[in-house]
Amino acid sequence: MIKGEKTASALDSVRKQKVLAGLEPFKLVEYFSFSSLAVILVFTLILSWLISENARKVMLEQNEEYSLLLAENLNQQVFRRFVLPAVIRHGGIALRNPEQFELLDGIVKGVTQGLKIDSVTIYDSSKNIISYSTLPDLVGKEGVGAAEYHKALKGAPNSRFTYSGTVLSIMGITTEVSCELKTFIPFRQVRKESEGGGELIMGVIEIEKDLTGNYANIIRLQGRIIMVSSGVMAILFLVLRFIVSRAGGIIERRALERLRLEEKLNQAERLAHLGTMVATVSHEIKSPLGIVRSTAEILEKRISKLAPGSEHLARIVVDETIRLNNIVVEFLDFARPPKANFLRGSVNGVAVKVLDFISPELKRQRIELVADLKPDLPESNLDLELFYRALLNILMNAIQAMHENGKLQVSTRSLADGAAVLQIIDNGVGIAPEKIDQIFLPFFSDKSKGTGLGLAIAKNILDNHGAEVAVESTEGHGTTFTIKLPPVMD
Ligand SMILES: Nc1ncnc2c1ncn2[C@@H]1O[C@H](COP(=O)(O)OP(=O)(O)OP(=O)(O)O)[C@@H](O)[C@H]1O
Ligand SMILES: [Mg+2]
Q1: Which of 25, 71, 173, 474 is deepest in the core (most CB within 10 A)?
Q2: Is residue 357 included in any domain, yes or no?
Q3: CATH number, domain at 353?
Q4: Which residues of 51-74 are buried (b: 16+ CB within 10 A; e: fewer)?
Q5: Are strands 368-373 and 343-345 parallel, antiparallel or unpaired?
Q6: Which of 439, 469, 472, when mutated, tests ligand 1's pocket best, judged by the most ligand atoms within 8 Å of its CB?
Q7: Are 138 and 37 in contact (CB under 8 A)?
Q8: Which of residues 164, 193, 222 is at a domain's end?
Q9: Which residues of the chain carry a pLDDT beneath 50?
Q10: Which residues of 89-118 are buried (b: 16+ CB within 10 A; e: fewer)?
Q11: What is the pLDDT of residue 8?
Q12: Residue ranges making up the domain that contains 162
């Protein structure tokens, strides 16, 4: 099933290519807008990562500073309130002595009470062993102090930050969030300025702080930034997609329209040239043809007297000149179409007249006529005579296309917008798909005696009426012509 000249299926591949070529610059814009969206999304993710990384750094620095101050204070307190009294009273430090251990424990817990500290551990300087810890299980363990311990022994306070978990942890996809900060500072002898001399490092104090809560907050912030920016991106994407698809549609329609107009213009130019030529030739033929005809008529009369029985020879000349004259008139009609004179009228009225005119021919060929003309059909702007001719040409083709069991259906109906639609359906031979685009072209004919101007003339007339013509045909099954006349504007 193929559509008529002005329907989408009539678009040949060249035409499609032209439209696509017209859309190319727009496709570039589309590509650019989507790629820039992707770039923005990547930048947003990087930005969210940078922000959370910065927040983590600030949190770490603050807590480290805090731990260092606390450790310094612990150092002072333990030295003054534990180391010195222990040396004086017991002659040295022996944490295996429960009395000494409890004294130290009391001091450490007193200093760290109320502060968010998880544990305090003191390492020995002579041996990598834990001398004291607020976590009793750790006391006495050897070799636990790692690189940070050795660094602190050399007099350099330092920290170890361990954390696990990402944005995915909040959603429960990966491991739980955990974060801890361990600060190591040298445990020094505290001397007054006046006492002078170098500092003696007696061990290492380790302060452990659990920062899981803070770290989880930072990850949540990162998650929120990603979610908000993804949401904004998604909205932007949808808006962009909507704009791009609408713009694409508009541009495609315009490209098609432009192409249609160009084609129309080209065809009009070609037809104008052709028309001039045809008009000149037809005009030159018409006058001598008239003379040939009248001469033959005279001859016919004379021959009947001079050579009775041979009049039919002259009759042949007369008949053929009449046929030739009809063709010439058709050529002239096409080349110089008469000016249309529009009046409000009903398509039904014209249809009834044409059907009346062709009814003897329908009877002769035993073609069944099914007419369904809706009485409430709105009026259209019509040149009654020209519209009659257009309709006649279409109907004649339908008749010529049918043989036995011919059935011709003619119907009218109205559309909601006030347009009138006329449909002519035949069950004739149909039109081959490769020919359907050409049937409206002048001189296209597959009939031995056809001029190929019938539909070209009809099309001109219908175009002048502002009508849309669509043709659907299936070879071997028949053809449908649909004519849509625009509503009358008041
Ligand atoms: N209803 C139809 N069924 C089948 N083929 C059709 C039909 N209408 C038109 N055609 C095809 O379109 C061609 C062009 O039609 P058109 O009326 O322009 O010229 P024609 O009928 O061949 O000659 P004429 O100038 O005598 O009308 C026809 O030759 C025919 O092949
Ligand atoms: Mg015809």
Answers
A1: 71
A2: yes
A3: 3.30.565.10
A4: ebeebbeebbeebbebbbebbeeb
A5: unpaired
A6: 439
A7: no
A8: 222
A9: 1-11
A10: eeeebebeeeebbebbbebbeebbeeeebe
A11: 38
A12: 14-222
pTM, 2 dp? 0.50
Q: Note the pLDDT of residue 7.
A: 39
Smallest CA-to-CA distance from 188 within 178, 177, 174, 198 is with 198
**164 domain-assigned:** yes
Q: In angstroms, rounded to a whole number, what is the distance separating the alpha carbons of residues 382 and 337?
A: 15
Please say which residue of 222, 252, 282 terminates a domain: 222
Give the distance (Å) from ligand 1 centre to CA of residue 394: 8
The tally of domains found in the chain comes to 2
DSSP secondary structure letter of residue 2: B
**Tokens 């329609």, residue located:** 253
- How many angstroms does the Cα of residue 294 sit away from the middle of ligand 2? 29
Query: What CATH number has the domain bearing residue 162?
Result: 3.30.450.20
Instruction: Give the pLDDT confidence score for residue 458 in this predicted structure.
Output: 93
Which residue is associated with the tokens 């005279």? Answer: 298
Residue 100 lies in a domain: yes
The one-letter code for the residue type at 16 is: K
Question: What pLDDT is attached to residue 409?
Answer: 97
**Within-domain flag for 359:** yes
| Sheet strand arrangement including 178-188 | 130-133, 119-124, 201-210, 178-188, 158-164
- In the numeric block, the tokens 């339908």 are attached to 398
Query: What are 428's two structure tokens?
Result: 């004739």
Structural contact between residues 167 and 222, judged by C-beta atoms closer than 8 angstroms: yes
Mutational test site, ligand 1, from 332, 358, 397, 399, max ligand atoms within 8 Å of CB: 397
From the CA of 373, how far away is ligand 1's center (Å)? 24
Q: Evaluate whether 345 touches 382 at the Cβ level (below 8 Å).
A: yes
Tokens 């534990």 sit at which residue?
A: 82
Given a contact cutoff of 8 angstroms between Cβ atoms, the answer to whether 15 and 259 are in contact is: yes
DSSP 236-297: HHHHHHHHHHHHHHHHHHHHHHHHHHHHHHHHHHHHHHHHHHHHHHHHHHHHHHHHHHHHHH
